[in-house]
Design brief:
Helix content: 40-55%
Largest sheet: 5 strands, parallel
Strand content: 5-15%
Order of helices and strands: EHHEHEHEHEH
Strand order of the largest sheet: 2-1-3-4-5
Structural class: alpha/beta
Shape: globular
Number of helices: 6
Low-confidence stretches: none
Distance between the termini: 19 Å
Mean pLDDT: 97
Number of strands: 5
Length: 215
């Protein structure tokens, strides 16, 4: 059985923008990915609301994606594939992070995954670096007004290019989520059930290609 670790933020956790709770397992893209892949794979959800790449949130420092990455990898070893989808929360106004800095944070996580797994499990997992969905046009009129400013929309659209560069330079697979899905019109940040289903379908293709040795 192959172990697939999905490491991300609220859209990996399955935050429901309609009620602020969590989608059921069969709605979340991680749960749907498990159903699509079947018994030959184990899909592990590691999503956390507000998680960043490597940035410390001054109010909630435990949401730094780097600080939990090593314990997470060690807990679930051996890990065969890591699907890494972070960066949206780095666009919050309080971080003042450029697109290049955010991509650099993602690159740091890729490096840590590789170095740590070689040490702890004896081999590197394959990595799918996912550039997250864009932030929607209505974010400044949503519940997240002030948390994300208008500039976050434009920066989110630049992430695929920078993430693509990171993937190429670091030799991992690249997936542009924004080419397939958009955030819900409820809060312009989190995914609808339809988007979760589509994301699962497309990532399933990527995972199967890696398992076939086509990555």
């Amino acid at each position: 059985m192959k172990t697939i670790l999905c490491y991300g933020d609220s859209n990996t956790y399955g935050f429901n923008p309609f009620n602020g709770l969590r989608y059921p397992e069969d709605i979340r893209w991680t749960g749907r990915l498990q159903m699509l892949l079947g018994e030959e794979c184990q899909v592990i959800e590691e999503g956390c609301n507000g998680r960043t790449t490597v940035l410390d949130d001054p109010e909630e420092r435990w949401k730094n994606g780097l600080s939990y990455l090593r314990p997470c990898l060690n807990s679930h070893k051996p890990v065969d594939i890591v699907i890494l989808m972070l960066g949206t929360n780095d666009l919050k106004e309080k971080f003042h992070a450029s697109v290049e800095e955010i991509a650099g944070g993602a690159a740091t996580l890729v490096d840590v995954i590789r170095q740590f797994t070689v040490e702890k499990q004896g081999f590197e997992p394959q990595i799918i670096l996912v550039s997250p969905p864009e932030i929607g046009e209505g974010i400044c009129a949503s519940a997240f007004s002030g948390v994300f400013l208008e500039s976050a929309i434009a920066r989110s659209r630049e992430l695929p290019k920078q993430y693509g560069k990171v993937a190429k330079e670091h030799g991992c697979a690249f997936f542009n989520a924004a080419a397939h899905i958009q955030p819900s019109p409820v809060d312009f940040l989190h995914l609808s059930p339809k988007a979760h289903a589509k994301l699962a379908e497309e990532l399933c293709k990527e995972v199967k290609a890696l398992l076939r040795g086509e990555g």
